[in-house]
């Protein structure tokens, strides 16, 4: 079974997207005081992009801390990245950075809290991706 | 009253004590993204400008005067009007940055004009912007919410609609030219403006959502109704404005799809659901590609394009990744 882990800052765009997906998901907390989730099965990470104009700081610090744990990182299977096309070349850059660092695919990119079309595509895509994972593992 | 003023100490801002981390995050984003029009080699567009037909040139100048008007309003009225409503001192500081960058944006259009256009053409377009009913109407709708007596949360709604929706009937055109390899340096400058406006809309929308947390459920419903009514009215004006501008080159329907798409994004910045259905938001892929271009239309030999003048690096902070 492939789960979801996500980060959403206090602005809540990614949280709203995950809520509409209705597929559950563990939230990486905004506050460093709150404990990190410990997924015990493979998961897909949904992550917003915080890059400046030069692409720096694309991956939120809390997500970096989450991924810094080798056990958690080992279960990561793919990344879905949020962003805003108005940021040009750095649109959803967090996805590319994580994908490269962790050697997993960028499964999808969406803007802000996602559209109806995004929700449908992510649901269908995740279902298919789960199927692929199962057949690889079998 | 006078006593109270005397007894309340005037407070200096302390950036090392934050009430809202978002303030510092956005401050950093905005200051790192700071730019000036002089950084963009607009003069490389002189030849391209000459290839536009006279009516295309007139359209472009008019569109830019319309954008200048919105930037002027946000610079002189919008951002300053939100300062007294600020919940934190840091929010006020961010708003002062927003106000100044709007002045830079407004100033940039004049840089484009002085580089590409003749004075009489530009003067005529500024006159047009004062006389155009739709442009004046939408600007007035926003300015009404900026009045000192207006509701602080409605002011933020109006501000997000200006930043994240009203600009786009204008931004469409330079993106369209860029997709046809025309005025590519001007498009680079506009992309810098688009990037700033995206942060402004995000931040003001975020502060709006924080504000909502403090009001009653009834008030929340009233504000939501107000927001949807306002975007509907603004859309109505925008559709007419777009038709007036773009009918001549047959692009009105294309512009409208872009308007629907951006209206939905503006509503998302306020935390609301979409108004327009997905099939109404199918933006021309060439326009989307022009928005999030990497360095399309540019190469090192022709000297067109500012991507390397401005410098573009996709850097990650390796120090943060203790893998």
Automatic annotation (TrEMBL), chain A:
User: According to its UniProt record, what is one Pfam family this protein matches?
Assistant: Flavodoxin_NdrI
Molecular function as annotated in GO: FMN binding
Q: Show the Gene3D superfamilies listed in the entry.
A: 3.40.50.360
Which InterPro entries does the entry mention?
Answer: Flavoprotein-like_sf, RNR_Ib_NrdI_bac, RNR_NrdI
Question: Which family does the record assign?
Answer: Belongs to the NrdI family.
Known role: Probably involved in ribonucleotide reductase function.
Q: What name appears for this protein in its UniProt entry?
A: Protein NrdI
Species whose genome carries this gene: Paracoccus sulfuroxidans
Lineage of the source organism? Answer: Bacteria, Pseudomonadati, Pseudomonadota, Alphaproteobacteria, Rhodobacterales
Underlying gene:
nrdI
UniProtKB/TrEMBL annotation, chain B:
Cofactor stoichiometry and binding?
Binds 2 iron ions per subunit.
Active-site residue numbers = 109
Please give the start and end residues of each transmembrane region: none
User: What is the enzyme's class at the highest EC level?
Assistant: oxidoreductase
> Which Gene3D superfamilies does the entry mention?
Ribonucleotide Reductase, subunit A
**Any one GO molecular function term:** ribonucleoside-diphosphate reductase activity, thioredoxin disulfide as acceptor
An annotated GO BP: deoxyribonucleotide biosynthetic process
**Record EC number:** 1.17.4.1
UniProt entry keywords in alphabetical sequence: Deoxyribonucleotide synthesis, Iron, Metal-binding, Oxidoreductase
Please list the cofactors this protein needs. Fe cation
Q: Which residues bind Fe cation 1?
A: 71, 102, 105
Reported function: Provides the precursors necessary for DNA synthesis. Catalyzes the biosynthesis of deoxyribonucleotides from the corresponding ribonucleotides.
How is the subunit organization of this protein annotated in UniProt?
Tetramer of two alpha and two beta subunits.
Under which name does UniProt file this protein?
Answer: Ribonucleoside-diphosphate reductase subunit beta
